[in-house]
Amino acid sequence: MVQAAMAKKRRPPWRRGEAVMGFIYILPATIILGVFHFWPMFYAVYISLHRWRVVRQGFVGLENYEWVLTSPKFWNSLKVTVYYVVGTVPIQLALSLLLAYILFQKVRGREVFRTIYFLPYVTSTIASGAVFAWMFNPNTGPINQFLASIGLTPQRWLLEPRGIFTLMGEAWGIPWLQGGPSLALVTIMIFVIWFWVGYDATIFLAGLGAIPYELYEAAQIDGANRWQQFRHITLPLLSPTIFFLSLVAMIGAFKAFNHIFIMTEAAAGTVGGPLNTTTTVTVFFFQNFYDTPTYGKAAAIAFVLFIIILIFSLLQNWVASKRVFYME
Amino acid sequence: MKRYTWLAAGLVLIALLIAACAQATPTPTPTPQPAAQPEAPMEAPEEEMDPVSKLDPSGQEVLFWHVSTRKHEQVLMEIIEGFNNSNPYGIKVVPEYAGYYGDIYKKILAGIAAGETPDLAVAYANQVAEYANAGVIVPLDQFINSEKYGFTEEEKEDFMWNLLEGDRNPKFGNQLLSFAHSRSMQVMYYNVDWLKELGYDEPPKTWEEFKEICVKATDPEKGTFGYAYAGGASLFAGFLFTFGGDIVSEDNTKIAFNSEAGLKVLQLIRDLFDSGCTYEVAERFGDQTDFANRKVLFTFGSTAGIPYYRSAIEESEKGPFNWDVAAPPSAIGKPVVNVYGPSVTIFKSVPERELASWLFFKYWAEPENVAKWAMVANYFPIRKSALELPEMQEYLQKNPQYKKAFDLLPYGRMEPSVAGYQQIRGIIGNMMKQVVEGMDPQEALAAAAAEAQSVLDQNQ
Amino acid sequence: MRMTAIPARRARVTWSWYVRASTVQLIMYAVLIIGALIAMFPFIWMIITSFKSYGEVASGRFFPRELRWWNYIEAWNAAPFARYFMNSIFIAITTIVGDLVTGVLAAYAFARMEFPGRDTIFFLFLATLMVPGELTVLPNFLTIRWLGWYNTYQAQIIPFAASVFHIFLLRQFFMNIPRDYWDAALLDGCTHFRYLISVVVPLSRAAIVTVALLSFIGSWNAFLWPLIVTSSEKMRPIQVGLRSFVTEQATQTQLMMAAATMVIVPIIIFYLFTQKQFTQGIATTGLKG
């Protein structure tokens, strides 16, 4: 958007020939997206205005939206989702940038490392979800065995509905420390971070590769140290990638479902358990879409979520428009 | 940036307007079938000769969506081929694998909306109730009672109808909406050797005794427990039945588990945890693993798991031991077991094709076929006469635990077939967890019942 | 050449510098190796489990007593995997081609061309990312039936032959190509299309390979949609085969892991293969070319 604004100042908004070409270029993508993404969205809006249990039963106006916004379950799921987003996105980006940055140095076996970091993304979540459930098993899992061996209290992990701050407060005797995401949700967050770090690092690496190293050479001649180079060259030039990945991570976090399903069904016996502390908005959507196929309500949940994501994206976009730097 | 905010607001507004207009005009969108909501029971007129017997199913081809893979699929194919080759009407059953239970359900839901359903499909009874509400299911009583194509009185005697209790739906005149050829049940697994060491020759018959033994088996030093608790609605239902309770009322419209019996179940769970003789299982089949490794004396699980328990015990690090299954302890003086398993249902098409589907059910229900079908999954055939078959006798010989469970079939009860039951199961699971976490059983019970009732109310 | 090249330019390598550099190196490798172990662990577990017997899985033994490689044969024979593989490869390759063609064209237009409503359309594209995919299943199924594409390959390809996410990714990269190049090309009388093919695409090889890989993984892992729009085994992809290992009572974990390993091998091969392109892409994306 920055350069769009600049372009406007430079010359007339657009030339006729280029405008026509522009539309031709986006046409194939637009047709496919229009048919398989836009049309379903409008259709879903239509569904959300009806009483719709598997089949359409009657127009109800905004009743489904009213139901969503007055449902305590929805607000609980929104709280869980916010915990989830705040707890995963920044950590995931920081870790992956660290790894990518190290890898981008002259590191021996870089390709081997990069391949390994990408493994979580390609391993089936059926397998990795099962492994995490096993690792965090309160009775027999290696994590608790490790904690016990260094003198810490073993935890119940995926079975623990109490908030981590409550647990900390109890452990350290601080009564005002209360609430927070449940330890079960934190366990899922650990899985999510594990899953995405390699993927993010791969994209970061591609981003780092796109930075012309003449810039570093020039900086070196000017006597900039490593941190200064990182701060003044790498970060600004990587900002489109950071923006991109944070947006993707955030949207992904809002839409997260599969691994929550796999990990909580296996451990707690109920999807979104224990005690709904891992019921994100998407899990709530699924309960209303499949467990009881009330499509009207489910579609209304999806659109409320859509508007929330939209607001967050716009916020992020606004921040980015001040911070993101595109090379011209 | 401002532009985007306006754009976003505009986008939402336009979308809502378009959708609202679409309603006002005669809908140009693909309209799914109107929701048939039969309020009155659909009963066949009794006077004249039954209409089904007048139909001719010759030459029909029926599409069957199933969930079976590997050896289950092989047996299913044998049965289908047997039918296709032997039926005098030239009916052809075409099988199609449609994914696992959750997947086939999603596929059918999409299919109902698009008007593309199979003729036959595998489904759980509560899913069938959902399909029936959408008006796409054919009740089976007309076929069963058909003079020409139904069962004879003698055959009817042979079926254990209590194993099909869950396929009957009060909302549709208590008719049979689906049919099952085999069932499994929830039993108590126990370590015979360990029980003897503790001084008991018999598994516990009452819950008091159960608790007493559990406490004795628990040893924090050795890390052993009496019982491995794997919460969930089926466990609750199984326990509830042993206290004489019900999940929902007879007519499926009222929640019934918030009763004396329901409270006793939750108190039992609370007591077991308070006494320290049980722990929560944290993985699927984690209780089976712990049982095989002699960490726990009792577990509750499906009889379909018997072969898996056996191989886990045989290959256990701690060496094999004697084990067996029994009915869960009971508070009402006689055993009760929770019977479950998937069913098969017929979708509306044309009467001839529906009949053709039924004839396949009927063939599948022949003693040899139900026996074959039951054995591959370690399920139980729903016909008594299947037991007399030599292959079944041989199977019983080889599987002593299976034989023992077989005798419990007459005590079988089923969970209700009500639409939205999947959500109610979630609510029940949540309630159990609340009690495990220390919430007052009475309070948890009341809250869960109210929430579950609101799910049932949506069905009206 | 890159940052570690700094010391080489200095006149003298002092002892204290050497110690500090070694410590930094040590920490770097420690971080990398610990990260690698954590990342690899479930993958290793999966492979080890695939060689166990059922009893070994159930008894919680970590290493199998013997390598039951025949688990793989059993898994392979349990479903028509050969056919599934061919289907998945065909679907994946055509999806990648379609995705790249639509993606590169659209991303270029969004990044470099001026036309009315450009940013608005791009924003609308992005908005579709925010809707849960499940919600689109029902209307899309109706569309597929209306098009007469039920039980075909195109039903599994065309809906994925354009991705907002990938357009976004490509656009980000295209925008980082210096504008001076285009101005220079314009002076030579270069058209947009020639500029795109001969300058932008070669310079963005890293991004294109990344998109191809992501597209491949997405296509390869698709499960629910293919199941809904197909009816015959002949049309179905690999994940349907993998799914057939979930049996009702006990998950046959060892067979499932054998099948899962078989299924992810192509992704890893594809990744290893593109890795070279990747590195090369990064190395040659310098401005000297």
Description of the molecule:
Chain A folds into two domains: 1-48, no CATH class; 63-323, MetI-like (MetI-like fold). Chain A is 73% helix and 3% strand. Chain A is built from 14 helices and two strands, in the order ααββαααααααααααα. In chain A, a hairpin with a 1-residue loop joins strand 1 (50-53) and strand 2. In chain A, helix 5 (110-122) crosses helix 9 and helix 13 (281-291) runs antiparallel to helix 14. With 460 residues, chain B is α/β, with parallel strands linked by helices. Chain B is built from 18 helices and 15 strands. Chain B has helices spanning 2-24, 70-86, 101-114, 125-133, 141-144, 153-158, 192-197, 207-217, 233-242, 260-274, 286-292, 306-314, 351-364, 367-376, 390-398, 400-406, 421-436, 441-457, and strands at 61-66, 92-97, 120-123, 168-169, 175-176, 178-179, 182-191, 225-229, 278-280, 296-302, 323-326, 337-340, 343-346, 380-381, 412-414. In chain B, the strands form three sheets. In chain B, strands 7, 8, 9, 10, 11, 12, 14 and 15 form an eight-stranded mixed β-sheet that branches. Chain B has a five-stranded mixed β-sheet with strand order 2-1-3-13-6. The two termini of chain B are 48 Å apart. Chain C is mainly alpha-helical and 289 residues long. Chain C folds into two domains: 3-50; 78-284, MetI-like (MetI-like fold, Orthogonal Bundle). In chain C, helix 4 (70-78) packs across helix 15 (253-284) and helix 12 runs antiparallel to helix 15. The chains are: A mainly alpha (328), B alpha/beta (460), C mainly alpha (289). At the A-C interface, helix 1, helix 2, helix 4, helix 5 and helix 6 of A face helix 2, helix 5, helix 6, helix 7 and helix 9 of C.
